[in-house]
Design goal:
The chain is of the alpha+beta class. The chain has 6 helices and 7 strands. The strands form 2 sheets. It has a 5-stranded mixed β-sheet, with helices on both faces. A hairpin with a 5-residue loop joins strand 2 and strand 3. Pathway: Cofactor biosynthesis; 7,8-dihydroneopterin triphosphate biosynthesis; 7,8-dihydroneopterin triphosphate from GTP: step 1/1.
Length: 200
């Protein structure tokens, strides 16, 4: 397991939040706001703890397995991320399915990779691709597919104001033909997408 500490200058963030408060509140000196810059900086340290961290590095428990060539599905992992356009959350669930070649991943490590890629300024498409890439790079499966379903608060509480909407993104990656040991992939990309769409 790797742990990510804050990679951002929290003291500078605190000063900047203090400045924003002065511009957005007519009584920014009131007691309720005294520690708000400090709280927000601390919160950003948590929300952006994945900055500068490679999601693939989180997948650090990989087990040899020559037998399993059937899909492994990790379904409905909850996540919270931050839209890089509006600094508002988008949140939902991510599911990932992969077809092992010679290795299987520690299941929790896939959730850790998701956490790392979510805890930064993001767009949903990139988050989806980064999770699939992390598994492809570290586990070297025959194929991997990822599905992310999320609501974006920038589309719910402002702007077009469509609360309850769902944005669904997918990413599919295939290993080099046949996999390391020459096994023929028995599952097509559309099979994997079918598993993701019909999970549970
Ligand atoms: N593709 C993609 N777009 C996103 C994501 N998060 C937010 N956006 C979009 O980024 C776009 C930014 O558009 P702009 O016109 O620059 O910003 P805006 O005027 O605030 O746009 P509105 O949200 O339409 O009011 C919007 O269409 C958002 O919905 C994401 O994860 N992926
Ligand atoms: Zn947004």
């Amino acid at each position: 397991m790797t742990s990510a500490g804050p990679k951002i200058n929290l003291a500078a963030v605190e000063v900047a939040v203090g400045a924003i408060l002065k511009y957005i509140d007519e009584d920014s000196g009131r007691e309720g706001l005294w520690r708000t810059p400090e709280r927000v900086a601390e919160m950003y340290g948590e929300l952006f703890s994945g900055v500068g961290t490679d999601p693939a590095a989180e997948i650090d428990a990989i087990f040899s397995d020559d037998v399993t060539h059937d899909p492994v599905l990790v379904a409905d992992l909850p996540f919270y991320s931050m839209c890089e356009h509006h600094l508002l959350p988008f949140f939902g669930r991510a599911s990932l399915v992969y077809v092992p070649d010679r290795h299987i991943a520690g299941i929790s490590k896939i959730a850790r990779a998701l956490e790392t890629t979510a805890r930064r300024l993001q767009v949903q498409e990139r988050l989806t691709g980064q999770l699939a890439d992390a598994v492809m790079f570290r586990v070297k499966p025959l194929a991997v597919a990822c599905r992310v379903e999320a609501e974006h608060l920038c589309m719910s509480m402002r702007g077009i104001q469509k609360p309850g909407h769902r944005v669904i993104t997918t990413a599919i990656r295939q290993g080099p033909g046949g996999g390391e040991n020459g096994a023929t992939p028995a599952y097509t990309p559309s099979d994997l997408l079918g598993l993701l769409n019909n999970r549970g």
